[in-house]
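Why do we care about 3D structure at all? Because function follows from shape, and shape follows, mostly, from sequence. That is the central idea of this module. The next example makes it concrete: a single protein chain, its amino acid sequence, and then its structure expressed as tokens.
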Amino acid sequence: MTPRAQQNTTVAARNWVGPAPAALLVATLAASLVSLGLAAPPATAGGLAASPLLGGVEEMAVVPGGPWRAARVAGSDALYFVSGNGRWVVKGEAYDLWGGERLSDFEAMRASTRSIRLTGLGPIWNDLAPVSFGDGAEDVIVFSDPRCPTCEALIHRLRSFEDRYRIVVLQIPILGEASGRIVKTVHCAQDADAARAVVRDGAPAAKLAVRPDCDGEAILRRIATAQLIGLQGVPFMIHAPSGRFIEGEPDDLAAWLEAGR
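And the structure:
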């Protein structure tokens, strides 16, 4: 699969695992039409104003979790949003309810899309039952699939930073039913330390003894949370204090972590 890194990163990410939805193609085509001015209707004889995008779209930013894109229009300081299919344009301002910020221009909007403020999600993080390791004061959140080789490699590399960070791993079944069985086995393990060894050290999950009364509610919450933040593949890593995130594995992990401090 072609590597894909989120635009907010300053280092390359590789071997990202995730779907390639048709909606992505539609959004890409729509953005192309808008940038070329082809999606804008001509002014009518009735005197309706022409599309504000006719001045030219200089830059666009994907809004995670939805089909809209923020647009910077040439010659305007206003904030515009373009629908996923390029048909509708909204002018105004936005509010980042997770970050508690008013976003009045494109720069503020783009900065907001480049971070995920975990505190804005409220108490949901307390119900996700992650597997954690490390003694550091700062959290690094990793969404992973137990059958994803890149996820395993990233978690292995993160062990070198246990003295500075607490690594919080949220396993989700991206790669099918086999992944789902492993995720539930780890979540339902009777021995928390043994479950941690599976996630941190790559120990076989098949040897875990599970609690018979365990359900998968926390796993469902993880999946819902992943959708809420716009996750489309794994590994997906968040530097909690700064909100910076990356899809994939950074080439220089130390530099990526330090850039968020």
